[in-house]
Design a protein that fits this description.
It is built from 16 helices and no strands. By secondary structure, the protein is an all-alpha fold.
Length: 307
């Protein structure tokens, strides 16, 4: 039994497709958890508790290796703080705030814009050459996200009638795209030690946010249902999904790994309809086609470079 578990773990650790697919499933589940958390636990409290739990678990498991690799990590501490603030704390705070104002389906579809954002960032930051079909893919993906933000009516964009939750989710996606790009040049630490340090930094960085929420009288601390939601978020979207995504980026790079994020809107839509009973409207279907079609265009190998 133990040998079989080790073999399965080794196989999983070497399969970027399986790692990234599971990570996207867990992140799709996070959109459901974000909606279920409304009234059960407030956004800053969720972020604070999720990273406290993850930091405690990883810190206990990786204590020895943290000490061994700390000399390698210390020079990169400012970069890791920035990655934690944008990719873990900032993204999650905005995500759970957005969940108060928009549907789980919308959260997932807008989160699906990340591959296009990562591709655009690769061009801007790393001066990668963009291909014609990649450019087309970015534009098609943006059209899909805009359709969701406009609630199926592009006239709403002209009059700025946009659900605030959709706008907040788009900003959150920009934050995580930046984090994904930064993974390309992350410190040469073992993946688990690197993630442990990010989770510890995130736990500390989330303290001011929860203090602000308490001072504003908006904090909602979890009861039994709230704790179940928090534990799910801590163990699956926070712990396993982050580790799997980081390993996937390590195996195939941020550009190709970012493409898998297009699975998030699919998983989110299925789970939202099945578990939350959310209506799946025509503009959701069109937006999904545009987002996924944009990703497909971006990944075409025979696209000519843009001169």
């Amino acid at each position: 039994m133990i040998e079989a578990a080790r073999s399965l773990g080794a196989r999983l650790n070497s399969s970027p497709v399986l790692l990234l697919t599971l990570a996207m499933l867990f992140w799709g589940g996070n959109t459901i958890a974000g909606r279920l958390a409304i009234g059960e636990v407030s956004p800053m409290v969720i972020v604070f508790l999720r990273w406290i739990i993850v930091a405690a678990l990883m810190g206990a498991l990786m204590r020895g290796r943290l000490a061994d690799e700390w000399p390698l990590a210390r020079p990169h501490l400012p970069a890791m703080i920035a990655m934690s603030l944008f990719g873990f704390v900032g993204f999650n705070i905005l995500f759970y705030i957005a969940a108060y104002y928009t549907s789980a389906i919308n959260l997932g579809i807008i989160q699906g814009s990340m591959p296009a954002l990562v591709l655009a960032g690769t061009v801007l930051v790393f001066r990668a050459r963009v291909k014609l079909l990649q450019l087309a893919g970015i534009l098609v993906t943006i059209a899909g996200v805009a359709l969701v933000a406009a609630q199926g009516n592009f006239a709403n964009l002209a009059t700025l009638k946009i659900n605030p939750g959709d706008g907040i989710m788009l900003i959150a996606s920009l934050f995580y795209a930046g984090y994904t790009l930064a993974l390309r040049n992350r410190p040469k630490l073992s993946g688990l030690v690197f993630f442990t340090l990010l989770s510890i930094i995130s736990a500390v960085a989330s303290v001011p946010a929860v203090i602000y929420e308490v001072a504003a009288g908006a904090a909602v601390w979890p009861g039994l249902t709230g704790w179940a939601i928090v534990l799910f978020i801590a163990l699956f979207p926070s712990l396993l999904a982050q580790i799997y995504f980081m390993r996937g980026v390590e195996l195939i790079g941020p550009g190709r790994a970012g493409v898998f994020i297009n699975l998030v809107p699919i998983f989110s839509a299925i789970l939202a309809v099945v578990l939350l009973g959310e209506p799946f409207r025509w503009h959701h279907a069109v937006a999904l086609v545009l987002v996924l079609g944009g990703i497909w265009l971006s990944e075409r190998k025979n696209a000519g470079p843009l001169q």
